[in-house]
Amino acid sequence: MFTIVEKRILNDSMTLMAVEAPYIAKKAKAGQFIILRVNEFGERIPLTVADYDREKGTITIIYQKVGKTTLMLDQLNVGDAILDFIGPLGKATELEGYKKVAVIGGGAGCAIAYPQAKALHNMGAKVDMIAGFRNKDIIILEDEMKAVSDHLILTTDDGSNGNKGFVTDALRKNIEDGANYDLVIAIGPLVMMRAVCNLTKEYHIKTLISMNPIMIDGTGMCGGCRLTVGGKTKFACVDGPDFDGHEVDFDEAIKRSRTYFDAEKEATHEYNC
Ligand code: FES
């Protein structure tokens, strides 16, 4: 059992939890994920390692209450325990050798983008962080992102924070103003990551994205997380979750992400009733 040692509400739909998992905390690196099962009746869901503390032996996860499992998880509080918590899974992001990087997060994706920015910042890279949200009320991790970047730009779709626009608008402006990025990292909804990749292709800037498809075993055996990258089948759980965004078949990934939409909606509805 894995005890929850911190629970923090980030906004109406997002929550941060720190969980006691010393063996995972000892090895975790930016870009990796864990798979958890809340209780013996629960399904397995992957969540990215948002942070880790090797001394305290804790792993931080951030989840959005979007379905039955995350609603079940949200019922737990400090002192309660999660039944299964496995990891670190997936490959760590390769961040060595970059000098100037734009790290882009879209909504909940900022929870995954933040550890990437932190790792790059700790390695001495210059980091511009661009974080996009629908409106100012759902902005998360602003202080944390500020602390690990040389420049943080926050955009909102509705302009409620005074900076209306999409992350791609801010990225294009930075590039045209002369930011000489040797890497862009984009993490968020598939349509956002596709838009960033279309933009960076124009400028021939290497772009990494983090894929978060449906996962079951997390060890490359079930095939649930398969994607097409560069014309080849890849498994996000063992080959990723990071991939060269210019090689990913986004149309297929978006279609597959909707496969269980109705079943997920039904399970959430039943859980709420
Ligand atoms: Fe089963 Fe990746 S989760 S192959």
UniProtKB/TrEMBL annotation:
FAD-binding FR-type domain segment(s): 1-95
SUPFAM superfamilies (UniProt xref): Ferredoxin reductase-like, C-terminal NADP-linked domain, Riboflavin synthase domain-like
Stored CDD domains: DHOD_e_trans_like1
Family matches, as NCBIfam families: PRK06222.1
Annotated protein name in UniProt: Sulfide/dihydroorotate dehydrogenase-like FAD/NAD-binding protein
Taxonomic source organism: Caproiciproducens faecalis
Native organism taxonomy: Bacteria, Bacillati, Bacillota, Clostridia, Eubacteriales
